[in-house]
Amino acid sequence: MGRAPARSPQRPSTTVSVRPQRQGGGGSRWRPPKWLRSLLSAHSVAGQVFILHVVIVLLLVVSAVVALVLQVQHDSTMEARSRSLAVAETLAHSPGIVEALESPDPTLLLQPRAEAIREQAGVDFVVVMNTEGIRYTHPRTDRIGKKFVGTFQPALAGRPVTEEITGTLGPLVQAVVPVNNPDGVVVGLVSAGITTESVGGVAEDQLPLVLAAGAAALVLATTGAALVSRRLLRQTHGLGPHEMTRMYEHHDAVLHSVREGVVIVDDDGTLLLANDEAHRLLGLPEDAEGRDVLDLPLDPGTAALLASGRIATDEVHRVGDRLLAVNQRSTDRAGGPPGSVATVRDSTELRALSGRAETARERLDMLYDAGVGIGTSLDVARTAEELTELAVPRFADFATVDLFETVLAGGEPDVAGSVRRTASAGIRKDAPLYPVGTQNRFVGSSPQGRSLASGQSFVEPRLSEAPGWRAQDLERSGQIVAYGIHSLITVPLRAGSLVLGVVSFWRAERPEPFDEEELALAEELVARAAVSIDNARRYTREHSMAVTLQRSLLPRSLPEQSALEIAYRYLPAQAGVGGDWFDVLPLSGARVALVVGDVVGHGLHAAATMGRLRTAVHNFSALDLPPDELLGLLDELVGRIDQDETEDEHSAPVTGATCLYAVYDPVTRRCTVARAGHPPPALIRPDGTVEYADVPAGPPLGLGGLPFETAELELAEGSRLVLYTDGLVEDRNHDIDVGLELLRKALVQAGDSPEDTCRAVLESRRPARARDDIALLVARTRALTEERIARWPVPSDPAAVAEVRAMVARKLSDWGLDELVFTTELILSELVTNAIRYGGSPIEVRMLRDRNLICEVLDSSSTSPHLRYASLNDEGGRGLFLVAQLAERWGTRYLPAGKIIWAEQPIP
Q: Which chain regions cross the lipid bilayer (predicted)?
């Protein structure tokens, strides 16, 4: 390309105009853009690469065109050989060919057929000959009768022959095929062929397409090479090889000569480059380049900084005995490659400053560890131990904690009382300090005594020169000094205005005494621990109150009754008192009610709520209500409790309270059960089979709106009914279905008695650390035999009272209860008379001989009599008063159709 002519410099008196040069046609000469001139220039690296690419692509295209032409020719030749062979075989196997060869004039018959086949197949000749090679047909009739040119001997043996020869028509490709008669004897030969001129015509027809494809490939490859070279031109800025080599040498010399470490890391964290100073300062190995910086033997903080690529300015890192200041920036700010470059310089002169910073960091770390490591449990002693374990050996060689006795019990500190050594830790176990558990009173002159009295911290830099401290115990203080303990800090454990105890830090290994800065650190450390110890103290107090309340609310002993043999277990949760409870309530008619309940939650609120519900069940059971009606009343009570608690912002509602109520009648051996959100009871039959009773599951207490349903179970004598709370079957590791199956397996292996059953269940199912309370109640059924039951129907006639009295007297005599005849006759006379007068038929009298003598009168009326004082003028109203005076207990029990008035008398 030529360059545009330069303008001549202008002179003051002469103006020179330059006429633009014209190319053919009179147009202006075109100048390519600057980037294209640089690309076509052989001086730049990009130009050289572009030219090399073009030459290589051109050679590849030429080679491809030659290869394609040769391939086309080869394919054409193979096509000619295949077509010749196919045409020859077609004619050789055509019908009548054998007869034509054996006819007197084969040429007459075969020449037209051969020519027709030749024209249809597009071959240059089709020749039929005898076995001696004499032609019968040929496109040129003057060749008929002459000998065939080519190899045909293999065809006489039965094998087709295909070859390239120069025949009568010129260079050609021909095929020779034998003609066999029905006996398989070769009687003639057929040859078909195509001349080389025809084959070459096929190749020439395809050559324009091949050349066009090659030209297109050349254009595309050249365009791609131009794009790649343009990219290379941008990256190399148009520099030539010599210039780039010189620039690299200069950069390399500068990079490795500076006295500052340079580290380049890509965005994947791989070390790309580190100069000599970086190798020296960071202690990098020779093969560091190309490895991940996290895999190099670097300080973890330095490696993390280099791998992160974040911006850093004069960030100080300790590497060995050096303090290195690291500056790091990203390399892709101005369109560069992603990654980061860091400079490292030695700042060992900042060692003293770094030492103080390290001390401050260690103290901050210790305070942080105190915040997360002290108070992990709500136990006063354990919290004090965590304080001493943290302080030794990071801050002191020995540490002790002394707390007031009342604080350990959860109460307020008694400043006039004694303290107890609650925790102690040290670098050695043989220090002559008071052991854990020692009860003591610190004298007023000792640092501990002054801290407890004033609430201030004190430091004794030299214990050997502190007479006030030695006054506590002359002998032991002398042993402590002789042991090597020489300095002491005492800090009171303060929670608000309360001083819970005192913490003592002792130093022995380090020769320098405690100073004021360390005193401030000790105060901060103890202040954080004091909050946790006070929380543990408050929790201990609340836990003790909850345990006391719970023990006072749970049954201390089971009532006497004959219907059931009962055993029970109650295991409180390890983390706090819960709301699980149970009860055994004797009812009228020798019946017994079994109750198991659960209040979700722990602490005083759960225990108090449990007590309220247990008291309510006691009261409701006195009404002799069916289980479903009793749970309905209990549900309403919980709803009212929730309403009251909601109005009080300091209280919480009862959420998730459950209850199961069962009534067993030893006369009928039937048990009526209802449950409100509680797990179903397990039933162990006398033969040892275990099943869960199908009791309809009602909603938990307090939801309201839904009725409760009952299930009636008929229990054979000796059956065991197992009631429990969810703490026995629920666990974080599995759902309740798995827990129920595990409980069933434990019950299958249990012994016959309720005690054995409780023992086997808890041995199998008791968790190592119970997160919830566990209440277990096992009741084995007994039956009241017919010999101890008496029944008489009573007609609705006042005259029947005398007959009833007579039957009662005879039955009591049979039972050996003659001393109860008079009172029983009087009681039943009044009750039967009342039923005849105010009740309805049918009327029935039943007597049960249990622990007490039970008299019952049944009638169909639902009206209950009431006890009252009769006035002097009243004719009646004294009978029920008389019954109440003679009987130990009496009452009314309602049935679906009527009522029962009952009275109990003690059996002497």
A: 45-70, 207-228
Residue 623 pLDDT greater than 60, yes or no: yes
Q: Give the Cα separation of 877 and 834 in Å (integer).
A: 10
Amino acid at 12: P
For residues 665 and 668, what is the distance between their CA atoms, to the nearest angstrom? 6
Torsion of CA 553, 556, 561, 565, to 10 degrees: 110
> Cα(756)–Cα(557) distance, rounded to whole angstroms?
19
The residues near 864 (Cβ < 8 Å, ≥ 6 apart) are: 892, 894, 899, 901
pLDDT of residue 95: 87
Which residues have CB under 8 Å from 293's CB, separation 6+? Answer: 265, 269, 270, 271, 303, 306, 307
- CA proximity to 685, closest of 724, 714, 728: 714
If you count them, how many residues does the chain have? 908
What is the spatial distance between Cα 330 and Cα 337, in angstroms, rounded to a whole number? Answer: 9
Give 8's pLDDT tier (boundaries 50, 70, 90): very low
Query: Cβ neighbours of residue 375 under 8 Å, at least 6 residues apart?
Result: 383, 386, 529, 531, 532, 533, 535, 536
Is there a contact between 482 and 474 (Cβ–Cβ < 8 Å)? Answer: no
Tell me how far apart the alpha carbons of residues 894 and 626 are, in angstroms, rounded to a whole number: 9
> Between vectors from CA 835 to CA 831 and to CA 838, what angle results, nearest 5°?
125
Given a cut of 70, is residue 249 above it in pLDDT? no
Cα Rg of the chain (Å, integer):
57
In 455-610, the DSSP E strands lie at: 458-460, 487-495, 498-507, 564-571, 581-586, 592-598
Instruction: Answer for the pair 767, 755: CB distance below 8 angstroms, yes or no.
Output: no
Contacts of 476 (CB under 8 A, 6+ apart): 432, 434
**Distance (Å, whole) CA 665 – CA 225:** 103
- 836 secondary structure, DSSP code: H
Tokens of 380: 């006063």
The 10 Å Cβ neighbour count of residue 313 is: 9
Q: Which amino acid is at 133?
A: G
Q: For the segment 654-709, what is each residue's pLDDT rounded down to a tens digit?
A: 567 899 999 999 999 999 999 999 999 999 999 999 999 999 988 998 887 788 99
pTM attached to this predicted model: 0.52
Both ends of the chain: CA-CA distance in Å?
140
In the prediction, which pLDDT does 187 show? Answer: 85
Helix, coil or strand: residue 256: helix
Instruction: Identify the CA nearest to 387 among candidates 403, 401, 368, 406.
Output: 401
Please answer whether residues 626 and 550 qualify as being in contact, where contact means their C-beta atoms are separated by less than 8 angstroms.
no
Please give the average per-residue pLDDT across 574-588, as a whole number.
Answer: 80
Task: Quote the CA–CA distance of 117 and 137 in Å, as a whole number.
Answer: 12
Helix (H) or strand (E) holding 647: helix 627-647
Please provide residue 718's backbone torsions phi and psi, each rounded to the nearest 5 degrees. Answer: 95, 0
- SS3 label, residue 730: coil
- Amino acid identity of 492? P
pLDDT-derived band at 7 (thresholds 50, 70, 90) equals very low
174 or 40, higher pLDDT: 174
Element (H, E) at 845: strand 843-849
Between CA 721 and CA 710 the distance in angstroms is: 16
Task: Give 211's pLDDT tier (boundaries 50, 70, 90).
Answer: confident
Confidence class for position 70, pLDDT limits 50, 70, 90: confident
Strands 487-495 and 439-440: unpaired
pLDDT of residue 591: 94
In angstroms, the CA 742 to CA 894 distance is 40
DSSP state letters, 736-803: HHHHHHHHHHHHHT--SSHHHHHHHHHHHH--SS-SS-EEEEEEEE----GGGEEEEEE-S-TTHHHH
How far CA 425 is from CA of 57, 331, 514, in Å, comes to 83, 53, 18
Over 60: is that where the pLDDT of 20 sits? Answer: no
Res 322 pLDDT > 80:
no
CB 796 within 8 A of CB 600: no
